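Kindly inspect both lines:
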Amino acid sequence: MTHDPLPPLRDVIAQYGLRARKSLGQNFLLDLNLTGRIARSAGTLDNCTVVEVGPGPGGLTRALLHHGARNIVAVEKDERCLAALGDIAAAYPGRLRVFEGDALDFELADIAQQPIKLVANLPYNVATPLLIKWLTPDQWPPLWESLTLMFQKEVAERITAPPGGKAYGRLAVLTQWRCDAHMLFDIDPRAFTPAPKVTSTIVQITPRAAPRAEAELGDLQTVAAAAFGQRRKMLRRSLTTLGVDTGQLLEIAGLPPTGRAEEIDIEGFCALARAYHLLRNMR
């Protein structure tokens, strides 16, 4: 690793007038110890394409480069940040490419070559939609081999929650069906400029070679949405929105009609999805 030849990040922000915008979900992380820790958490970086979403002025980008990333693809929506990112690209020739635009509009296959690791302090306002996009590609295993991402702690808890608690819901089912997910460490609001009102958490997600149980993605999403859409009700009530006989549905799935969504594990939801697929195609 070599010394970072660029000026301090606070100077870069002042030079380019990069006041964080709430409308873009921006909170800039300036603490070099923390950006370095995030970069190290992603593991070996010199043998893959690192995709970073929302680099802003480039704090994490510089940490990734400093910790060995040879090929970074950054997607940035805020055109004000492009000049600062251009300075980084010039300081590290051939190692950083920047795409301007909304990450939701980009397909990984179009901008990066495998193997791919996604490492990002995600803008809060698009973090969950981006995660769902990366969890639901047409093919599985996906193009990426790991996600090391920052979320609001509440969202991180929803991603990693086990059955039985209030945090367990559709996001946990969708994530844990195909992946292993772990919270790594928290980041205090005071580490950011401006300081958000919530604690942030770094989460690492790795894809399983095969899902935990057989199910069609669309069917799983549909039954989970119905079950958690009325999570306080028993399954025999909450699943009526599916338009099939709920008694028959639950009998085929082997689940008690008096159960509630938060009590059903991933395998149980997959059984529901398979039963729903069967009954839907019998109509």
Notes: DSSP finds twelve helices and nine strands in the chain. Residues 266-280 form the longest helix (15 residues). The first strand starts at residue 28 and ends at 29. Strands lie at 28-29, 49-53, 72-76, 96-100, 116-121, 144-152, 179-187, 192-193, 200-207.
